[in-house]
Amino acid sequence: MHNPTTILAGEAAATARDEAWRGVRAALPVLLGFIPFALLLGAQASQKGLSAVEVPLLTGLNFGGGSEFAAIRLWHSPPQVALIVAMSCLVNSRHLLMGAALAPYLQHLPARKALPALFFMCDESWAMALADARQRAASRISLRYYLGVSAGLYLTWLLFTALGALLGPALGDIEQYGFDMAFTAVFLVLLRGMWPGLRACRPWLVSLLVAAASSLLLPGAWHVAAGAAAGLLAAMLWTARPC
Fold first, then answer.
1. DSSP track, 162-181
2. What pLDDT score does 11 carry?
3. 3-state SS class at 40
4. What span, in angstroms and rounded, lies between the C-alpha atoms of 38 and 59?
5. In this structure, are residues 126 and 105 in contact, taking their beta carbons and an 8 Å threshold?
6. I want to staple 56 with a disulfide (CB 3.0 to 4.6 A). Which of 89, 162, 216, 236 is the partner?
7. Residue 157: per-residue pLDDT
8. pLDDT at 194
9. Nearest Cα to 190, choosing from 234, 128, 142?
10. Contact call for residues 29 and 149 (beta carbons, < 8 A)
11. What angle do CA 132, 135, 139 make, to 5 degrees?
């Protein structure tokens, strides 16, 4: 006779595995966009003198593509560490808004689970987890699905940035192949999946316009913070005064 507790535990484990694999499968198209961009970052890093060991340390400890590209562009010998750290924090400031949007979907998790999960949050895993929860009309994200997505993205990013560092001297300037357009295509697909309608997306438009104007007028990556602040302010104003 089978123990009911054992049966339930086995079913729960199978469900968890299925959810994780569902996340891995869902992330596969996004992984294809990660590969050329990771190769590009690794090649640029190797041309700045970073080794194939140092590059995955950079990309693994700071899992945010935009800030990593900013750091590599600012990298000189000797590196200006304070400037690189400040610019990385500025570019990653968008994660404050992303985390705030994700927080209501993580309230059921204890901090010992939520905080490690947030370490792997990037633009794509954040967008896919939120889109999946909304599609299921759920008040919480599927943690296993999210971790499946994140594991695929994280490992791909580490592996191919390291590979780009190894191949960088042979590849030369790989921007000429148009690899830098890969993430743009991925973001357009993700935004299409999250599109809630024109009225709800007005803050997106405000953020886009302010960021675009700031990129022409301000040096460095200040357009990231400007666009994020403008979008947040617009969302607050439209929420307070619905029309």
1. HHHHHHHHHH--GGGGTGGG
2. 43
3. helix
4. 9
5. no
6. 162
7. 93
8. 54
9. 128
10. no
11. 75
In which residue are the tokens 């991925």 written?
186
Cis peptide before 56 (omega within 30 of 0): no
For the chain, which residues make up each domain, given as ranges?
13-195, 198-243
Structure tokens given for 228: 């994020």
Cα separation of the two ends of the chain: 63
Residue 144 has pLDDT above 70, yes or no: yes
Asked if the model's pLDDT at residue 191 lies above 90, the reply is no
∠ CA 107-95-228, rounded to 5°: 120
Structure tokens belonging to residue 215 = 């990129």
Q: pLDDT band for position 85 (50/70/90)?
A: confident
Q: Name the H helices within the chain.
A: 4-47, 54-61, 65-73, 81-91, 94-102, 111-119, 123-135, 143-171, 182-194, 202-217, 222-240
**Assessment of whether the complete model's pTM goes beyond 0.90:** no
